[in-house]
Write a structure and sequence with these properties.
It is built from 15 helices and no strands. The longest helix has 26 residues. 70% of the residues lie in helices and 0% in strands. With 388 residues, the protein is mostly helical. Helix 12 runs antiparallel to helix 13. The chain is flat.
């Protein structure tokens, strides 16, 4: 299924680990450069600004190809309009296939062809179905999943998650007001099921090339699970979808459940993140806690904004100060000491790095200069030149 040479993908993993080990001070820059020289990798671009530049260049190239094709189809106006987006989608898929065969991966050019292909696919289905959102979301999700599995494109996994969620939402709209009313609970169950499914797939993953995409999907499920029953989201969507107007003294149905959910879930995320040392979940929990506070202030302004910000800053400062005091002396687990290495599993892959590369490199140690110099004579005895 994967279009790329797996040996090159393995080499890319090893060079990434070498870079992490170099940043941690475990190998020298010379050793890192030697590894990168000896291990051929795919044509990728790690500099985000350069990658954006290549993406814009790829969009220009894609637009030029589609424009040239459109010149030949102008004679058949209405017919060409109905099929042009399908042709453009084929151009996008053919372009990314050609780039992949030439070794381009996460380069910017391939990003442009992939995202434009998905956009044209959605537009084509929309023209054919006259804007049937549920069908559009389904085909875009299928296309994005195919691209992720074949080209290991992580952004396509995000497109798949958004499209699958849109498919669920539009599917619930088909049931009318009942579907809209139970949509928060349906989305919560959907996110929970797929969170544990992606977690199980990550733990049993044989091909590590899919790990980053599954990690993104897993994190997306955490965000969707929290937002699905957040009080602000539920109340505003109820007003938008059902036309429900919440009058003073009256609240939405199951309001206490949504209030409790809004504050309990971020705390559970925080506890689980600290327990499993999951940094990504930790950041999500912080964002969720902040959004929960915003949710309450959106409807219940207990204090003036300047007083609330001041008190919040004092509380956060106190938490940070005492956390640092407690954790600064710890050497393992949760600690305030800086990481010597970016990735927690890099040391585990160090052995694989050495074995796979089979370089047999050893760090160079410069011997300390001896305080006594030998040779040449002139030190109360015979030297190498025979003089005294």
């Amino acid at each position: 299924m994967i279009v790329y040479n797996k040996q090159l993908l393995d080499n890319e993993v090893l060079t990434d680990e070498a870079d992490a080990l170099c940043k941690g001070g475990f190998i020298s820059k010379e050793q890192k450069k030697f590894i990168e020289k000896e291990l051929p990798v795919l044509k990728s671009q790690k500099n985000i600004l350069v990658r954006i530049g290549f993406f814009l260049l790829g969009c220009l190239l894609f637009g030029s190809i589609c424009g040239a094709i459109s010149l030949f189809g102008l004679s058949a106006e209405n017919t060409f309009f109905k099929i042009c987006c399908y042709i453009f989608a084929v151009v996008g898929f053919a372009g990314v296939e050609l780039l992949a065969n030439q070794g381009y991966h996460n380069h910017g050019l391939d990003d442009a062809f992939i995202l434009n292909a998905l956009l044209c696919l959605g537009a084509a289905i929309g023209i054919t179905t006259e804007g049937y959102e549920m069908v559009i979301a389904f085909f875009v999700a299928v296309g994005a999943l195919f691209i992720f599995l074949r080209y290991l494109h992580v952004i396509s996994m995000l497109v798949f998650c958004l499209s699958a969620t849109a498919f669920l939402f539009f599917g619930m709209f088909e049931f009318g007001d009942i579907g809209k009313a139970i949509l928060p609970f349906t989305a919560m169950i959907f996110a929970g099921v797929f969170y544990f499914l992606t977690k199980k797939m990550m733990n049993r993953l044989n091909e590590r090339y899919y790990y980053n995409g599954l990690l993104l999907a897993n994190s997306f499920c955490l965000v969707l699970f929290y937002l699905s029953c957040n009080y602000l989201v539920v109340r505003e969507l109820s007003a938008e979808l059902l036309g429900t107007e919440v009058k003073p003294g009256i609240d939405i149905p199951f309001a206490y459940f949504f209030y409790a959910f809004t504050f309990i879930v971020p705390v559970l995320y925080l506890v689980q993140a600290l327990k499993t040392k999951d940094r990504l979940m930790l950041w999500i929990s912080f964002l969720a806690i902040g959004f929960s506070i915003y949710t309450i202030r959106f409807y219940h302004s207990v204090l003036p904004i300047e007083v609330a910000l001041t008190l919040g800053g004092i509380v956060l400062f106190g938490i940070a100060y005492f956390s640092i005091r407690i954790l600064k002396e710890k050497e393992s687990g949760l600690t305030f000491k800086p990481d010597r290495i970016n990735h927690s599993d890099s040391l585990l892959n160090a052995e694989a790095l050495v074995v796979a590369s089979t370089f047999g490199m050893k760090p160079e140690v410069k011997p300390q200069a001896s305080p006594m110099e030998f040779g040449g004579g002139g030190f109360s005895g015979g030297g190498s030149d025979g003089s005294f």
